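Quarterly update, task 2.4: adenosine-3',5'-cyclic-monophosphate-bound model.
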Amino acid sequence: MDHTLGIIKPNSVASGHTGKILSLLEESGFSLEAIRLVQLSRADAENFYAVHRERPFYQSLVNFMTSGSVVPMVLQGENAVQKFRQVIGDTDPNQAEEGTVRKLYGESKERNTIHGSDSDENARIEIEFFFPGFFGST
Ligand code: CMP
């Protein structure tokens, strides 16, 4: 699949880093196919991160993701899921490579600036979560 879902997280939207992050993604070869500015409800965030329900950081992550607006987007590019994960860097900004989005703007593992889908299957589910009907009937 050539699409992935990214979400600029509340810390970066509030810090005014959205434009710089979008530029970096476009300069990396992605094209923007859909974008929104969204305030997640608690139920939305709990559903989106349901796979992490049993993890110790789950409630804190849900609190954080509902603390302000987020910017979900659909990005298109060859091998999009894997390439996007390279461009955003390691989950932990301290471990992320120089020049990656999380290295540049991340504050901690939780406040790590941006989410990216981790597989083609999840990209499809996550894109439909924020952009219902994106894939039409295909
Ligand atoms: P994200 O790509 O949005 O997917 C799950 C999120 O859980 C991850 O980025 C981090 O923000 C958060 N996360 C993962 N591991 C930890 C951790 N050990 N402590 C706190 N938050 C974490």
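Highlight for this quarter: The domain at 2-130 is CATH 3.30.70.141 (Alpha-Beta Plaits).
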